[in-house]
Amino acid sequence: MHIAVAGNIGAGKTTLTTMLSEEYQWQPHFEDVEVNPYLDDFYESMERWSFNLQIYFINSRLKQVLDIRSTGKDFIQDRTIYEDAYIFAPNLHAMGLMTNRDFNNYLSLFEMMQSFVTPPDLLIYLRSSIPNLIEQIQKRGREYELSISTDYLERLNERYEAWIQSYDKGKLLIIDVDELNFVDNEKDFEKVVQQVKSMINK
Questions:
Q1: Residues 6+ apart with CB under 8 A from 77
Q2: Concatenated DSSP letters for 68-94?
Q3: Collapsed DSSP state (helix, strand, coil) of residue 27
Q4: Distance CA 152, CA 169 (A)
Q5: pLDDT tens digit string along 39-89?
Q6: Active-site positions?
Q7: 197 falls in which pLDDT band (50, 70, 90)?
Q8: How crowded is the C-beta side of 50, counted as CA atoms within 13 Å?
Q9: In angstroms, how far is CA 38 from the centroid of its own chain?
Q10: Alpha-helix residue ranges (DSSP H) falling in the chain
Q11: What proportion of the chain, given as a percentage, has pLDDT over 70?
Q12: For a pLDDT cut of 90, what percent of the chain falls above it?
């Protein structure tokens, strides 16, 4: 079984991935942020490094899915290959931070890559307001994220909502993290667990 957690920067993907992996004994796979060689450079100069960063992410996530699927184990993934292609790369292109040539090259690569993977059995989308995202970003204090603008987060949120509205690749569970504080409230986390259980047993 392949579970994936999607959502904007600061929505709580890594935390929920960790908590659900422990609850269900799923093998967790996290977004590669600590050793990503492009992140610091990207936030310093988005236009220069946008294509490099997106290629790194999509390659990393494809390898991750292929590796874990080959083991036959149940796993939960922090962020999906689809978010790179439908959220982040198009947003950078629309903002003028990725050239037409690079964007078209990227999309061509994505189309080829996605033919090698199957969608997750369940996608969990963490919906969050901008103020909540900013609060969480500041709380975790990653230096390269502190320069992220509100406008950038708003653009991403708009693209996430548009993508989720048209998502048709499998089961979808939407969790409003403004309403459910699964990190600090045990009852809220239990609600999430019950919702996930209901979806995977359908």
A1: 2, 3, 4, 5, 17, 28, 29, 61, 64, 65, 68, 120
A2: HHTTT--EEEES-HHHIIIIIHHHHHH
A3: strand
A4: 27
A5: 888 888 989 999 999 999 888 888 888 887 788 889 999 998 899 999 999
A6: 78
A7: very high
A8: 23
A9: 17
A10: 13-24, 39-44, 46-69, 81-83, 89-94, 100-114, 130-140, 150-165, 186-200
A11: 98
A12: 66
Q: 79 with 6: CB under 8 angstroms? A: yes
- φ, ψ of residue 5 to 5 degrees: the values are -115, 120
Residues ≥6 apart with Cβ < 8 Å to 58: 81, 84, 85, 106, 109, 110, 113
Longest dimension (CA), the chain: 49
Q: Report CA 176 to chain centroid distance, whole Å.
A: 15
CB-count burial class (<10 Å; 0-12, 13-18, 19+) for 167? middle
**91, 84 Cβ separation under 8 angstroms:** no
Q: What is the DSSP letter of 145?
A: G
Question: Is the confidence at residue 182, as pLDDT, over 80?
Answer: yes
pTM here is 0.90
Record the tokens describing residue 193, joined without a space.
């667990």
Q: What angle do CA 177, 173, 181 make, to 5 degrees?
A: 20
